[in-house]
Write a structure and sequence with these properties.
It is found in: Cytoplasm. The protein has about 220 residues and is α/β, with parallel strands linked by helices. It is about 45% helix and about 15% strand. An 8-stranded parallel beta barrel has the order 1-2-3-4-5-6-7-8, surrounded by 6 helices. The mean pLDDT is about 95.
Length: about 220
């Protein structure tokens, strides 16, 4: 298994610098990670650094709390596409979910999806599984399956609980096979990365990516 191709090498801290992005992209190229996941202001720069490589540039929408107005998420989506992001990781309105406002959540995804599909971009919907009940995760899987998103993603990394094997397994049981799962949040070891992949994740969001792939190289 070429673990690096499962990984979105990520830096999303609020203090991200130009040097952080340069270093991240150098590592993406060196280790052949699937994508560089960067804050929206750095998409253009990351595209320049990655050049003609096969690695993608991902960015985030409504990050990290998800309660941005729908109009703001639309604007962020359009700007990310203008800047030529390949993949967009959008946080759902978790506040709406906790208020049982599934009508709002449906309106949100129904508004954003045509923009993304018209430009042939990839969308990963972040549901923040660590702070959801099982039945809420299942309802998310049902809703986002209806809109044929590319990935459902576990976590932002900013909630009190990140990815778990149990959440990935639950999501895999309730998503169609054509919708992939991205696990993120707290993935710092090779063992945990491998457990998440075995559970059904096809992409991992990591900031400890280099240490994880080096651990795999040593092991092999």
């Amino acid at each position: 298994m070429e673990l690096a191709r499962y990984i979105d090498h990520t830096v999303l801290k609020p203090t991200t610098t130009l040097e952080d992005i340069r270093q991240l992209c150098m590592e993406v190229v060196e280790y052949n990670f699937a994508a560089a996941c960067v804050p929206p202001p750095f998409v253009k720069l990351a595209k320049t650094f990655l050049g003609s490589t096969t690695s993608k540039v991902a960015t985030v929408i409504g990050f990290p709390f998800g309660y941005s107005a729908l109009e703001a998420k639309v604007a962020e989506t359009v700007l990310a596409i203008v800047d030529d992001a390949d993949e967009l990781d959008m946080v759902i309105n978790i506040s709406a979910l906790k208020n049982n406002d599934w009508e709002y959540l449906e309106k949100e995804i129904a508004t954003v999806m045509p923009i993304i599909r018209s430009k042939h971009k990839v969308i990963k919907v972040i549901i923040e599984s660590g702070i959801l009940l099982e039945e809420e995760i299942i309802k998310c899987c049902e809703l986002y399956s209806k809109y044929q998103v590319d990935f459902v993603k576990t976590s932002t990394g900013y909630a009190e609980k990140g990815a778990t094997v149990a959440a990935v397994q639950l999501m895999r049981r309730h998503l169609p096979q054509n919708i992939q799962i991205k696990a993120s949040g707290g993935i710092r070891t090779l063992a945990f990365a491998e457990e998440l992949i075995a559970a059904g994740a096809t992409r991992l969001g990591c900031s400890a990516s280099v240490a994880i792939v080096k651990e795999q190289l040593i092991k092999s």
